[in-house]
Backbone:
């Protein structure tokens, strides 16, 4: 059975290709894949490029975090909060009718990563509290 730390390391590694694919979609929203997801085809190059760059950068940060001997919890919290925020933003845009439900489906991956990372952080905090008592 996989330990919780191994599970989190695996999800950190899985988030790299997930983020790189999302970065590709953001960089090239008029591509076949971008249109299949339902992204707007006309996006200012500066916004598309900056968004893609940040999403890719976070993906590489997750992979770097997976390589660390000890998972840096504040950085994982930042990643979880970011992924949760992406899902909330996408869901709000979908509710407003601004984007396709297919984008929400894709952003569900961010929600899953966020929930797993928050769960793990909470379990680590509980373990640390038990050790202190």
Residues:
């Amino acid at each position: 059975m996989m330990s919780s730390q191994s599970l989190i390391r695996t999800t950190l590694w899985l988030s790299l290709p997930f983020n790189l694919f999302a970065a590709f979609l953001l960089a090239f929203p008029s591509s076949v894949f971008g249109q299949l997801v339902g992204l707007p085809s006309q996006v200012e190059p500066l916004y598309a490029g900056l968004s893609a760059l940040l999403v890719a950068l976070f993906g590489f940060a997750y992979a770097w975090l997976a390589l660390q001997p000890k998972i840096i919890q504040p950085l994982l919290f930042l990643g979880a909060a970011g992924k949760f925020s992406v899902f909330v933003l996408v869901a709000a845009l979908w509710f407003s009718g601004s984007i396709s439900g297919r984008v929400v489906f894709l952003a569900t991956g961010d929600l899953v990563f966020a929930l797993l990372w928050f769960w793990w952080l909470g379990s680590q905090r509980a373990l640390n509290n038990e050790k202190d008592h």
Helices lie at 4-27, 32-37, 45-67, 73-95, 101-132. DSSP finds five helices and no strands in the chain. The radius of gyration is 16 Å.
